[in-house]
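REQUEST FORM: STRUCTURE PREDICTION
Request ID: SP-0412
Submitted by: Lab K.M.
Chain count: 1
Length (residues): 208
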Amino acid sequence: MTTRTNKVTCDLTISLDGYAAGHNQSEERPFGDDGGDGWGSELHAWYENKEENKAEIARMAETKAFIMGRNMFGPVRGEWDRPWTGWWGDNPPYHGPVFVLTHHPRDPQPMEGGTTFHFVTDGIESAFRQARAAVGDDGAISIHGGATTVNQYLAAGLITEMRLHHVPLTLGAGTRLFDGVPPMKLEQVSSRAATGVTHATYRVLSSS
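STATUS: Completed
RESULT:
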Protein backbone atom coordinates (compact mmCIF):
# COMPACT_ATOMS: atom_id res chain seq x y z
CA MET A 1 0.00 0.00 0.00
CA THR A 2 1.29 3.46 -0.86
CA THR A 3 2.03 5.66 2.14
CA ARG A 4 1.02 9.23 1.61
CA THR A 5 3.40 11.88 2.90
CA ASN A 6 1.42 15.04 2.18
CA LYS A 7 2.27 17.98 4.40
CA VAL A 8 -1.03 19.59 5.37
CA THR A 9 -0.55 23.09 6.74
CA CYS A 10 -2.48 26.16 7.73
CA ASP A 11 -0.93 29.62 7.37
CA LEU A 12 -3.04 31.94 9.48
CA THR A 13 -2.54 35.47 10.76
CA ILE A 14 -4.20 36.00 14.13
CA SER A 15 -4.47 38.68 16.78
CA LEU A 16 -2.93 38.09 20.20
CA ASP A 17 -6.33 36.96 21.47
CA GLY A 18 -6.62 34.43 18.66
CA TYR A 19 -8.93 36.06 16.12
CA ALA A 20 -8.41 35.83 12.35
CA ALA A 21 -11.23 38.27 11.57
CA GLY A 22 -13.68 40.47 13.44
CA HIS A 23 -17.45 40.51 13.60
CA ASN A 24 -19.61 42.16 10.91
CA GLN A 25 -17.80 40.83 7.84
CA SER A 26 -19.25 42.12 4.57
CA GLU A 27 -18.34 42.75 0.96
CA GLU A 28 -17.21 46.24 1.94
CA ARG A 29 -15.27 44.95 4.98
CA PRO A 30 -14.18 41.32 4.35
CA PHE A 31 -12.36 41.10 7.70
CA GLY A 32 -15.12 42.89 9.57
CA ASP A 33 -14.22 44.84 12.71
CA ASP A 34 -10.54 43.98 12.38
CA GLY A 35 -8.94 46.96 14.11
CA GLY A 36 -8.30 48.61 10.75
CA ASP A 37 -10.01 49.29 7.46
CA GLY A 38 -11.89 45.97 7.31
CA TRP A 39 -9.52 44.66 4.63
CA GLY A 40 -6.90 43.30 7.02
CA SER A 41 -4.71 46.40 6.89
CA GLU A 42 -3.56 45.87 10.48
CA LEU A 43 -3.72 42.09 10.68
CA HIS A 44 -1.84 41.53 7.44
CA ALA A 45 0.45 44.57 7.36
CA TRP A 46 3.46 42.29 7.89
CA TYR A 47 2.91 40.69 4.48
CA GLU A 48 3.71 43.97 2.73
CA ASN A 49 7.27 43.79 4.11
CA LYS A 50 8.21 41.04 1.69
CA GLU A 51 11.97 41.29 2.17
CA GLU A 52 11.90 40.88 5.94
CA ASN A 53 9.34 38.05 5.69
CA LYS A 54 10.61 36.38 2.53
CA ALA A 55 11.18 32.98 4.19
CA GLU A 56 7.58 32.75 5.42
CA ILE A 57 6.18 33.96 2.09
CA ALA A 58 8.37 31.48 0.19
CA ARG A 59 7.01 28.60 2.28
CA MET A 60 3.49 29.56 1.28
CA ALA A 61 4.49 29.25 -2.39
CA GLU A 62 5.39 25.58 -1.85
CA THR A 63 1.71 24.69 -1.53
CA LYS A 64 0.23 22.77 -4.48
CA ALA A 65 -3.49 22.76 -3.53
CA PHE A 66 -5.67 24.87 -1.26
CA ILE A 67 -8.90 24.38 0.68
CA MET A 68 -10.97 27.34 1.84
CA GLY A 69 -14.41 28.08 3.19
CA ARG A 70 -17.01 29.88 1.14
CA ASN A 71 -16.78 32.92 3.44
CA MET A 72 -13.12 33.30 2.51
CA PHE A 73 -13.91 32.95 -1.19
CA GLY A 74 -16.48 35.72 -1.12
CA PRO A 75 -19.55 37.40 0.40
CA VAL A 76 -22.19 35.69 -1.76
CA ARG A 77 -24.60 33.63 0.33
CA GLY A 78 -27.16 31.02 -0.71
CA GLU A 79 -27.44 30.19 -4.40
CA TRP A 80 -24.80 31.58 -6.76
CA ASP A 81 -26.79 34.53 -8.07
CA ARG A 82 -23.86 36.41 -9.63
CA PRO A 83 -20.54 35.49 -11.24
CA TRP A 84 -18.31 36.03 -8.19
CA THR A 85 -14.73 34.85 -8.81
CA GLY A 86 -13.05 35.75 -5.52
CA TRP A 87 -11.39 38.78 -3.97
CA TRP A 88 -8.15 38.48 -5.92
CA GLY A 89 -8.92 39.69 -9.46
CA ASP A 90 -8.41 37.79 -12.69
CA ASN A 91 -5.07 36.27 -11.63
CA PRO A 92 -5.39 34.95 -8.05
CA PRO A 93 -2.17 34.20 -6.14
CA TYR A 94 -2.77 30.44 -5.83
CA HIS A 95 -1.65 29.13 -9.25
CA GLY A 96 -3.14 25.72 -8.58
CA PRO A 97 -6.41 24.02 -7.60
CA VAL A 98 -8.47 25.65 -4.86
CA PHE A 99 -11.31 23.66 -3.29
CA VAL A 100 -14.08 25.88 -1.91
CA LEU A 101 -16.47 24.41 0.67
CA THR A 102 -20.09 25.30 -0.10
CA HIS A 103 -23.63 23.93 0.08
CA HIS A 104 -24.51 25.14 -3.42
CA PRO A 105 -23.20 23.43 -6.59
CA ARG A 106 -21.29 25.40 -9.16
CA ASP A 107 -19.10 24.51 -12.14
CA PRO A 108 -15.31 24.87 -11.72
CA GLN A 109 -14.04 28.42 -12.31
CA PRO A 110 -10.71 28.58 -14.17
CA MET A 111 -8.71 31.79 -13.74
CA GLU A 112 -5.54 33.26 -15.16
CA GLY A 113 -2.20 31.99 -13.84
CA GLY A 114 -3.25 28.38 -13.33
CA THR A 115 -5.77 28.84 -10.50
CA THR A 116 -9.02 26.90 -10.76
CA PHE A 117 -11.70 27.16 -8.09
CA HIS A 118 -13.55 23.87 -7.51
CA PHE A 119 -16.76 23.98 -5.48
CA VAL A 120 -17.24 21.07 -3.06
CA THR A 121 -20.70 20.39 -1.66
CA ASP A 122 -20.17 17.10 0.19
CA GLY A 123 -18.01 18.11 3.13
CA ILE A 124 -14.49 18.65 4.37
CA GLU A 125 -13.35 15.05 3.87
CA SER A 126 -14.39 15.13 0.21
CA ALA A 127 -12.49 18.38 -0.35
CA PHE A 128 -9.46 16.83 1.34
CA ARG A 129 -9.61 13.72 -0.86
CA GLN A 130 -9.90 15.85 -3.97
CA ALA A 131 -6.94 18.00 -2.94
CA ARG A 132 -4.82 14.90 -2.34
CA ALA A 133 -5.81 13.46 -5.69
CA ALA A 134 -4.81 16.74 -7.35
CA VAL A 135 -1.31 16.93 -5.82
CA GLY A 136 -0.30 13.27 -5.60
CA ASP A 137 1.21 11.44 -2.66
CA ASP A 138 3.64 14.12 -1.48
CA GLY A 139 2.28 17.48 -2.69
CA ALA A 140 1.69 20.10 -0.01
CA ILE A 141 -1.90 21.09 0.85
CA SER A 142 -2.94 24.28 2.63
CA ILE A 143 -6.09 24.50 4.73
CA HIS A 144 -6.16 28.14 3.80
CA GLY A 145 -8.95 29.58 5.91
CA GLY A 146 -10.72 31.19 7.34
CA ALA A 147 -10.42 30.16 10.97
CA THR A 148 -13.75 28.31 10.98
CA THR A 149 -12.54 26.04 8.17
CA VAL A 150 -9.16 25.54 9.86
CA ASN A 151 -10.96 24.59 13.07
CA GLN A 152 -12.98 21.92 11.26
CA TYR A 153 -9.84 20.33 9.83
CA LEU A 154 -8.04 20.54 13.17
CA ALA A 155 -10.96 18.81 14.87
CA ALA A 156 -10.84 16.10 12.19
CA GLY A 157 -7.11 15.55 12.82
CA LEU A 158 -6.15 16.35 9.22
CA ILE A 159 -3.63 19.19 9.71
CA THR A 160 0.00 18.23 10.28
CA GLU A 161 1.63 21.65 10.68
CA MET A 162 0.39 25.04 11.88
CA ARG A 163 2.10 28.26 10.79
CA LEU A 164 0.70 31.08 12.88
CA HIS A 165 1.56 34.74 12.40
CA HIS A 166 0.81 36.60 15.65
CA VAL A 167 0.29 40.36 15.32
CA PRO A 168 0.37 42.72 18.34
CA LEU A 169 -3.28 43.73 18.55
CA THR A 170 -6.44 42.33 20.11
CA LEU A 171 -9.90 42.24 18.54
CA GLY A 172 -12.00 41.07 21.47
CA ALA A 173 -14.48 39.18 19.30
CA GLY A 174 -14.85 37.62 15.88
CA THR A 175 -13.80 34.38 14.22
CA ARG A 176 -11.36 32.67 16.56
CA LEU A 177 -8.82 29.94 15.97
CA PHE A 178 -9.33 26.74 18.05
CA ASP A 179 -13.02 27.38 18.78
CA GLY A 180 -14.71 23.97 18.94
CA VAL A 181 -11.40 22.13 18.60
CA PRO A 182 -10.65 19.39 21.16
CA PRO A 183 -7.48 19.59 23.26
CA MET A 184 -4.36 19.19 21.15
CA LYS A 185 -0.70 18.47 21.73
CA LEU A 186 1.69 20.53 19.58
CA GLU A 187 5.45 20.70 19.20
CA GLN A 188 7.00 24.10 18.53
CA VAL A 189 9.27 23.82 15.51
CA SER A 190 10.38 27.44 15.13
CA SER A 191 9.66 30.99 16.19
CA ARG A 192 10.90 34.28 14.75
CA ALA A 193 10.07 37.87 15.59
CA ALA A 194 9.84 40.41 12.76
CA THR A 195 8.48 43.93 12.50
CA GLY A 196 4.88 43.84 13.71
CA VAL A 197 4.58 40.05 13.74
CA THR A 198 5.90 36.89 15.36
CA HIS A 199 6.00 33.81 13.14
CA ALA A 200 5.57 30.49 14.97
CA THR A 201 5.44 27.01 13.47
CA TYR A 202 3.98 24.03 15.32
CA ARG A 203 3.85 20.35 14.45
CA VAL A 204 0.54 18.75 15.38
CA LEU A 205 1.29 15.65 17.43
CA SER A 206 -2.14 14.52 18.56
CA SER A 207 -5.67 15.58 19.38
CA SER A 208 -8.23 14.08 21.74
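NOTES: The longest strand covers residues 184-194.
Reviewed by: T.R.
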